[in-house]
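Obj: model holo form, ligand = heme C.
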Amino acid sequence: MKNFKIKLSVISLGTMLSLGVTQAGIVGSMHDLSTTNPNVATPIPGGTAEICVFCHTPHGTDTSAPAPLWNKILPTAASFSTYDALGTATLDGQIDLNEGGISLACLSCHDGTTALDLVLNAPTVTQGTYRYDAAGTNLGGGITMASFAPGPVPVLGKDLKNDHPVGVQYAGGGLTWAPITGANTVATAANDKLFNEPIWDNNRLWIGAVGDAGLPLYKGATLGPMVECASCHNPHKTDFGSFLRMSNAGSGLCLACHIK
Ligand code: HEC
Ligand code: HEC
Ligand code: HEC
Ligand code: HEC
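Output (holo C-alpha cells):
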C-alpha cells in the first residue's frame, strides 16, 4: 500500500512536469486535504481523493458566498471580534467582514470552529461521512482545525483583534470602485495617504501589478476597495510559502501597499 502511494506521487509529479506547470500549486500543499496528498497524513476520516471539493463544487453552491462556487456555509461576521474593536487611534478605515466578504470564506475553516469536512455538496462518497444534510445543516462532529494535525495548526480563531485588519477599507477609505484617476486617487480622495496607488484593470483593482504578480483588492458593497485575506494570500499558490501572493523578503509584501 505504501509502495503504491509512492508510485502514485511520482506519476502525478511527472504529469505536472510534462504539462509544463510553472506555478507551485495546490497539489501536495496544506490546502490539499485529499487522501492522495503524499505530504501529510490524511486528516479526513473516510476521506476522498478530490482536492477542490473542500472549498468548491460544480453544483449546489452557497450563492451568498463571495468566493466562486463555494462549497461551505460561511460563519457569520458577527461571530468575530475585529481589529477596530481595539479602538486604535491611527486606524482610518472602516471594517466590515460582510462588505467584501471573501475573508469569511477563509474563516470557514480558519475560525477553528467550522469543520473542515463540512461541505454542502459532498464528493462521491457516503454523504454521512461529510456531516451535513440536504439543507446544509451540520449533522454534528467533524474535524476542526483546532482538533487535527500535529505540527503548527494555523487557527486564527474568532478573535481577529490580534491579526492584520481584514474586511478593511484600502487607504483608510475614501476611494471608490472605479478607475483610479483624477478625483479618485489616493492623493486626493484617500483618508490615509500613506498607501500606494491601486491599478484599475477590467473592473478589478490591483496593488503593485495586475494579475498573478499583484495583490487584489475586493469590491466592498458600499465601502469601496477592501483588503481581505486573499489580498495577501492565494489559497492555491505555494511559490512563496504560507500561500503568499508575493515574496515578503525585505517586507516586499507590506511595502506593496504601505508607504513606509
Ligand atoms: C482551501 C480552499 C480552496 C481549495 C481547496 C481550492 N480553492 Fe479555488 N478558491 C478558493 C478561494 C477562497 C477563492 C477566491 C479567491 C479570490 O477571490 O481571490 C478561489 C478561487 C478560485 C478560482 C477563481 C479565481 C482564480 O483564482 O482563478 C478558481 C478558478 C479556483 N478557485 C479553482 C480551484 C480548483 C480547480 C481547485 C482544486 C484543484 C481549487 N480551486 C481548490 C479556495 C480554494
Ligand atoms: C477547507 C478548509 C480551508 C479553507 C476554506 C482555507 N484553509 Fe487555509 N488551511 C487549511 C488547512 C487544513 C491548513 C493546514 C493546517 C495544518 O496542516 O496544520 C491551512 C493552512 C493555511 C496556511 C498556512 C500555510 C503554511 O504554509 O504554513 C495559510 C496561510 C492559509 N491556510 C490561508 C488561507 C486563506 C488566506 C484562505 C482563504 C483564501 C484559506 N486558508 C482557506 C484549511 C483551509
Ligand atoms: C496584509 C497581509 C495579510 C493579510 C490581510 C492576511 N495575512 Fe495571513 N499571513 C500574512 C503573512 C505575511 C504571513 C506569513 C507570516 C510569517 O511567515 O511569519 C501570513 C501567515 C498566515 C498563516 C500561517 C500561520 C501564521 O500565523 O504565520 C495563516 C494561517 C494565515 N496567514 C491566514 C490568514 C487568514 C485566514 C487571513 C484573513 C482572516 C489572513 N491570513 C490575512 C499576511 C496576511
Ligand atoms: C493589500 C494591502 C496591504 C498589505 C499588503 C499590508 N497592509 Fe497593512 N494595512 C492595510 C490597510 C488598508 C490597513 C488599514 C489602514 C487604516 O485604515 O488606517 C492596514 C493596517 C496596518 C496596520 C495598522 C495601522 C493602524 O492604524 O492601526 C499595520 C501596523 C500594518 N497594516 C502593517 C502591515 C504589515 C507589517 C504588512 C506586511 C506583513 C502589511 N501591513 C501589509 C493594507 C495592507
